[in-house]
Amino acid sequence: MERTTQFVGQSLAFLDSVERASRAAPLNRPVLVIGERGTGKELIAERLHHLSGRWAGPLITMNCAALPETLIEAELFGHEAGSFTGAAKTRHGRFEEADGGTLFLDELASLSSPAQDRLLRAVEYGEVTRIGASKPIRVDVRIVAATNEHLPRLVDEGRFRADLLDRLSFEVVTLPPLRVRNGDVPILADHFARRMAAELEWPQWPGFTARAQAELEAYQWPGNVRELRNVVERAVYRSEDPERQVDVIQFDPFHSPWAPADSASAAPHENPEHPTAAPRAVEPATAALPSAATGDLRSAVNAYERALLEDALSRNRFNQRATATSLGLSYDQLRHAMKRHKLHEGEAAA
């Protein structure tokens, strides 16, 4: 279960971006990695480092958005003792720590203008000057930077230095979002599910039901591979029986019939293309009425009840507890009704 630099996928869009990174890796040039959140930008940075001649040197990572603007320059370039309040001793910056290796700057677009100025000099001349020092220090560092912003647009808006972008964009690797990686969702889902099943010490991985597989493939994945991993691992660990296929997928972990009223009404985590249905009372019009031609009242009532159950299960993403709440039933009553209509094991009518 140790984290490794591992790429899983077979779509051409994905393989093309990995191939571009692999070809750029041996060159001692800066690389920009562009992509939405969760697409694997840090994994690409690790690949660029480990396939380069610097593989034995340090790989230093800095998230530029994780620090306040006043500390970013001190983190990048270091400082001398007494150079500002709280600087009790001399501290090496990330550039010095990465000497002989690779410096990965995540969230590059969040760098302040002064930090961009100092970064430009470091990239252009291979020199950094600690805050409070008078002499520069030579460093041998390869820069890999990542962002989910469109940097040329930021240049046009005056929020990013054009000359710094020119220095950093020798090669630009743009990672495709998961929604366009045709055929990769089932492969990734199976990969993460098997790892989670092994962590839970299941005897084997039973797989997903056809319905769960279809839901995973239909979802748009705004959080990309990181979101997919969370959804799959959550579904596996919540599954009660390691011998049965996983059938219940919950995309929004915040969705709950007991959610506070303000968050339930605002629905901040709802995906507009695949909304998570909130439990609500079933209206008779929502379920298909049985044919009026039937002459058997009991059969008609049974058919209508089954249609109500199928509709409520579908709207609640087959979460049985949420479905029971929306129908005004106890969990045991719902389970009994599902058993009577043979709706276990994904047998509901399509």
Structure description:
With 350 residues, the protein is an alpha/beta fold. Helices cover 41% and strands 8% of the residues. It is built from 14 helices and seven strands. The chain is elongated and about 95 Å long.
Comma- or semicolon-separated keywords:
disordered C terminus; alpha/beta; 5-stranded parallel sheet; two-stranded antiparallel ribbon; single chain; 7 strands; 350 residues; 41% helix
Could you provide a short overview of the structure?
This protein is of the alpha/beta class. It has a five-stranded parallel β-sheet. The protein has a two-stranded antiparallel ribbon with strand order 4-5. It is 41% helix and 8% strand.
* N/C terminus separation: 38 Å
- Biggest sheet details: 5 strands, parallel
Strands, total number = 7
Helix share bin: 40-55%
User: Helix- and strand-based class?
Assistant: alpha/beta
Strands of the biggest beta sheet: in what spatial order? 2-3-6-1-7
The geometry reads as elongated
Q: What share of the residues does DSSP label as strand, in percent?
A: 5-15%
* Mean pLDDT across every amino acid position: 85
Number of helices: 14
Order of helices and strands: HEHEHHEHEEEHHEHHHHHHH
Low-confidence stretches: 263-270, 272-288, 345-350
Radius of gyration: 27 Å
